[in-house]
Amino acid sequence: MKKLTILGGGESGVGAAILGKQKGYDVFVSDRGEISKKYKEVLLNNEIDFEEKNHTEAKILNADVVVKSPGIPDTVPLILKLKENGIKVISEIEFAAKYTNATIIGITGSNGKTTTTLLTHYILKNAGLNVGVAGNIGDSFAQQVAEQKYGNYVLELSSFQLDGIEDFNSHIAILTNITPDHLDRYEYDFNKYIASKFRITKNQTANDFLIYDADDEAINNWLKENKTQAKLVPFSLEKELEYGAYIKENNIIININKDTIHMPTSALSLKGKHNTKNAMAATMAAQLLKVRKQTIRESLEDFEGAEHRLENVAKVKGVAYVNDSKATNINATFYALECMDTATVWIVGGVDKGNDYNDLLPLVREKVKAIVCLGLDNEKIKNTFKNVVDIIVETAGAEEAVKVSHKLAERGETVLLSPACASFDLFENYEDRGRQFKKAVRSL
């Protein structure tokens, strides 16, 4: 019996354990931290051996194959030791893909991947396709492969998940954009991070497709210097394309098969330039899967968007409150500020992954009337913006940040939570931060 060891007892780890057991492996789950009650119950119900608050090295090094959580860096001693011993270390995505013949639409990028994933899934579901959504969102891919019979999957893939693939392939890959993010995991080398994103196309063949942002410098440079077998399907807001998607006179024009689609950008339910790009990418994926134009149009008109991504929470005394907690890097916050069409009180801060706030200066100068800091260390934010914004206040939690913003904002203005940082100093994760923000707004 082959031994499967899983490092990390979260969503992806427990999903891989369920699939591994179903496929006849001897499964062992090991988590250095505590495994949450929800996942512990699943492991116990499935009679899967596990340990928590510890990694028993002898037991782990006994494995034939190791599936590791995307959160564990490749550089930790245990992973290095496994590789020295010739034990294969893969991601849950790689493990699960071996057991499904479904058509996979894989979506990666620094920003926009959740929205593009949800939108693509929404269009395909409306078209009547048998389709699951997984990867970085929803139930784990492995668990769905074990328990569902989907003919198609839309997968949101992080660079960490892609780092752990060998044979995994997406029939349709989407690369939304590449901007510096998570550089702490890539030795602060942007090129290593770019290479990691492009692993999405490493196993593609001439029968597969790579949909990408043709306005993105990092993507274009990689494509100039490297080869992919896939058919390239570009989208652009800046230039007209003979093949792909572009904008002309406020219309999206998509020309990838005999059937050209025209759609006014004003009809899109999601606003902002970045969302126009997300819509182009999702539409082309749907078209490649032969979805009718009418279904695509209707889906783009009534799609609601992702929670914690430019989510309108409420209007209180004429002030709009917007939750963009999912903005954990500069580029995501850039998009959010770009979408603001009123004076804005901006709530920002948290754990900074090497941010350069200077890129935001022009937008902040134009749109932000006050900054409310939400993090333990706000020096960098204060130093960058002190000459541009008169009011900068420090707060110690979501409730206080909302109360202060409420005092600063006037009728017709917007309070925007778009932190540009990770959330781990004051919150469990960006969802927790977003929920606390929404709760505080609703109790004003």
Polypeptide structure, described:
It is a single chain. It contains 17 helices and 20 strands. Strands 7-8-6-9-10-11 form a six-stranded parallel sheet, covered by helices on one side. It has a six-stranded mixed sheet with strand order 15-16-20-17-18-19, with helices on both faces. Helix 6 crosses helix 12. It folds into three domains: 88 residues, Rossmann fold, CATH 3.40.50.720; 209 residues, Mur-like, catalytic domain (UDP-N-acetylmuramoyl-L-alanine:D-glutamate ligase), CATH 3.40.1190.10; 132 residues, Protein-Tyrosine Phosphatase, Chain A, CATH 3.90.190.20. The radius of gyration is 22 Å and the shape is globular. The protein is an alpha/beta fold and 444 residues long. Helices cover 35% and strands 22% of the residues. The longest helix is centred in the middle third of the chain and has 16 residues.
**Morphology:** globular
CATH architecture assignment name of the largest domain: 3-Layer(aba) Sandwich
Radius of gyration, CA atoms, in whole angstroms: 22 Å
Percent strand equals 15-25%
The neighbouring-strand order within the major sheet is 7-8-6-9-10-11
Unreliable residue stretches? none
**How much helix is in the residues?**
25-40%
Task: Give the count of structural domains.
Answer: 3
Structural class: alpha/beta
Oligomer category: single chain
How many individual helices?
17
CATH superfamily of the largest domain: Mur-like, catalytic domain
Distance between the termini: 59 Å
In round numbers, the mean pLDDT is: 94
Q: How many beta-strand runs?
A: 20
State the CATH topology of the largest domain.
UDP-N-acetylmuramoyl-L-alanine:D-glutamate ligase
CATH class descriptor name of the largest domain: Alpha Beta
